[in-house]
Amino acid sequence: MRLYKAIAATALAAASGIAVPVLNRAPAHAASDVGVIANLWNWNWNSVARECTEVLGPAGYGAVQVSPPQDSMTKGGTVWWDIYQPARYELTSKFGDEAAFRRMVDTCRGAGVKVQVDTVINHMTGQGATSYGGYGFSKYDYPGLYSSQDFHQPTCQINQGDYRNDAWRVQNCELVSLSDLNTGSEYVRGKIAGYMNKLTSLGVSGFRIDAAKHINPGDLSAIKARLVGSPYIHQEVIQGDQEAVQPSQYTGVGDVDEFVYGRKLREQFTGQIKNLRTFGESWGLSVPSDKAVVFVDNHDTERGGSTLTYKSGDTYRLANLFMLAWPFGTPQVYASYTWNNSEAGPPSAGGGYATDVNCSNGQWTCFDRQVSGMVGFYNAVKGAGVANWTDNGNNLIAFSRGDKGWVAINNEGGAVTQTFTTGLPAGTYPNVAGTGTVTVDSSGRATVTVPAKSAVALHTGSTPQPNDKQATVYYKTSWATANIHYGINGTWTTVPGVPMETPCTGWKKKTIALANATSLKAAFNNGSGTWDNNNGNDYTLSPGTSSVKDGIVTANATNPCGS
């Protein structure tokens, strides 16, 4: 649900050390064995299915969280929040019909990826009269489903002061005028459980409970008791200092979305990441590791300014890499669409129905692809403690996960070369956070150059990539500045991509490491919203030198700027 209430962040000064050779820290127990969750927010069902097959399954993601699938009031695609105002529990949403939803679930399960559903059960609508599925309703009347007696009566509105002073009002009054379901009613509980049981019968494995903070935990427990099987549950309970309703009150129902986590990472990645040596529950996180679903951002926080977002560029990627490397909670990677207007809905057509995701047109972040290598890292090091911590007293940190993995994260403005103790067995390892390989000697040490705003991550069981290749592209343009947005083996840079240099008048240049890939896909833009994406087909570039001029790629090209 939208973050309607501003939450004040709590400052923390954490101790740090420079070049500390060993830190023996036992791993915090993760919330579950779900694995890494990809939150593909506002992706339609066809696109989720394709992503499960092409990216999530091969990368080792354990689950995908999808947006609310129930029929909702419609704003014709102009906003994102209409899907959080249910009109009925039929699967006729802006993301596809029930048949498409079934195909998506089956496809994802076939790829080894479990499906979790964002579930809206606290309320129905606050406005509108027609749903995406063509169903007519009013605020307290949903023919064949609910009528006025199924909502908390008499109606009341949650006031700002209630959050600190009155838990009952927070859980029984209306959140921003949304009709608040009486979840203490046996009838209402039965209807909600029936909806959730239908989803599990289709193969859904878990639920994210939207606005759980506004439902009494006893009501949630009663609904959970009606569910068939044991679906995984995590709940949206946004922590607020000294508030009457706290996340810890919900851990008996299931796991909890840990909102403090992303706030703390933003503080450090915009400050000094050396402090992360002690990162954990002692920093004021709202629930223990074994009850926490953690994330750098989600659809609420990226619009609220409390966390890093895709707009933070490389810093955002580094924070996500840290999340996947550090042992706390169950990590969730967020991938959605780009936006300038925080109210705007996803790319849509035909009355507001979300269009298929295109990861190369600048409209979608597809961030799950950018950290896919670190999902394998997370899976490889599970259960191993933190050791061999090193930092430079500022914004370079490195640590191992037992003898299973090692990572260095450089949030500095320049490259750092250093000899590190990795704790790994001798061998040559691919950098799963980027490109290239690293050789570890018999003492577990390696000399590594970590580029600016980048990372190097190694883990056992990975396959070395000894035949690293490069592609150098020259791009003809009149733009003063140019970026290249590129993808290697399906993993794309963050929009708008990386800046290109100007080797001579009229040309831009970039050299890209390919590792063992045989080609890359690319599109170009001026950094201000103007794109050259080859009419939606992307450019395909090969190893060696290529030039792109007037929409034509020339392979094995000569340097247009001279030698």
UniProtKB/TrEMBL annotation:
SMART domains: Aamy (SM00642), Aamy_C (SM00632), CBM_25 (SM01066). SUPFAM superfamilies: (Trans)glycosidases, Glycosyl hydrolase domain. It catalyses: Endohydrolysis of (1->4)-alpha-D-glucosidic linkages in polysaccharides containing three or more (1->4)-alpha-linked D-glucose units. Residues 387-463 form the Alpha-amylase C-terminal domain. Keywords: Calcium, Carbohydrate metabolism, Glycosidase, Hydrolase, Metal-binding, Signal. The keyword Metal-binding applies. Coiled coil: none annotated. Its cofactor is Ca(2+). This is Alpha-amylase.
